[in-house]
Amino acid sequence: MAEISREYMEQVAQMWNARGKGLITHMALEIENVSSEGVRVRMPFNPDFCVDKDQTLLHGGILTALLDSVFGLANFVTIKGISSMATLDLRVDYLRAARSRADVIVNAHCFRKTRHIAFNAGNIWFDGHEDAEIARGTASFALTRGDTSLLEAMTKGKAS
Amino acid sequence: MNLQTVNANVARVPFFRFLNFEVQSMDDFHAEAEMTFEAHHIGNPIMEHYHGGIIASFMEATAAIAVQPDFTEVPAKPINLTVDYLRPGVKGPLYARANVTRKGKRIASVSVITWQTGREKQVAEGLYHFLLV
């Protein structure tokens, strides 16, 4: 498969983030790095995502949501010609309590892609504490390939 | 525990308010809840489907309540989860049922299903573990 240029991947990633709706917008993600090795994304602290009264402990579910999103992004930037993509399954281990008001950093990559399926892995830590992972996840995605790429559909804002 | 007390507990959790769900039935071994569709639940920007992570979060929340409805400060501590996504979650209410498969002294195992039009048409199913100590 032909190499995908860094410029293309960055353009796709920014598009994904800008055109994202709903939860993606609410998570206010910042794309920090994009390459064929994977993607790194920052999620600023958000009190809505906490479970405690003091709002310092993140709910596991938001970490799961973040992994699911960033896996999608990793596939989107590294696999060309995807017209749609659906999460098949997802496994997440919560490695320690996510107690901090620091930004959350996610690293995710696609470790195997076939015509129909992509396999992903990723991990999450609080900014500045890379040695203390808070969650790790793996997922598989069903890919639909077609003439209308997801990128074009998003650009035009039409249904794929 | 009565439903009113459980839902008052749910309302104290910021992220549970973000999910916007209500517990509709429960006993010692299960909990059922209904989540209202919100714009911030959208995952697919083209079709307005639920974000997979929101579905998994709602399942985790329902499972935690089935295990520990009377939590004082924070809901039951999750250890890990696996989710199978079976159908897209479309705009509209989403229902979840969590069954406590086993509740020991330290660990609980919970299976959860979600659906929209009928229980037999599951949107997702999952297994969740919680640490009770």
UniProtKB/TrEMBL annotation, chain B:
Keyword Iron-sulfur: no
Record flagged with keyword Cytoplasm: no
Keywords attached to this entry: Plasmid
Pfam families for the chain: 4HBT_3
Domain Acyl-CoA thioesterase-like N-terminal HotDog: 46-126
Signal peptide positions on this chain: none
GO molecular function: thiolester hydrolase activity
Alphabetical list of Gene3D superfamilies matching this protein: Hotdog Thioesterase
SUPFAM superfamilies: Thioesterase/thiol ester dehydrase-isomerase
Protein name: Acyl-CoA thioesterase-like N-terminal HotDog domain-containing protein
